[in-house]
């Protein structure tokens, strides 16, 4: 699973233009929103697009999105469970 989390970290950094961060700066369990990385609702939309384009996963329920985007690890777990 660590290969997927490393890949996800790189995609998040690229997708959201987080140029001041490296893959090593992101912990698998750091919250992506709020006190963690501090992402916002626009970032969430970009992550939804990334899931669709990169992994063929569509999120339609906002409540589901909150759970999925808690941390890099929760995203990786969701992708593993739902990847096409």
Automatic annotation (TrEMBL):
<dbReference type="InterPro" id="IPR036736">
    <property type="entry name" value="ACP-like_sf"/>
</dbReference>
<feature type="domain" description="Carrier">
    <location>
        <begin position="2"/>
        <end position="83"/>
    </location>
</feature>
<dbReference type="Pfam" id="PF00550">
    <property type="entry name" value="PP-binding"/>
</dbReference>
<protein>
    <submittedName>
        <fullName>Acyl carrier protein</fullName>
    </submittedName>
</protein>
<dbReference type="InterPro" id="IPR009081">
    <property type="entry name" value="PP-bd_ACP"/>
</dbReference>
């Amino acid at each position: 699973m660590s290969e997927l989390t490393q890949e996800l970290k790189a995609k998040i950094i690229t997708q959201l233009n987080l140029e001041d961060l490296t893959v090593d700066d992101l912990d698998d369990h750091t919250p992506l929103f709020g006190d963690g990385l501090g992402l916002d609702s626009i970032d969430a939309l970009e992550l939804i697009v990334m899931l669709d384009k990169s992994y063929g996963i569509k999120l339609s329920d906002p409540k589901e999105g909150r759970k999925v985007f808690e941390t890099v690890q929760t995203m990786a777990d969701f992708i593993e469970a739902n990847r096409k």
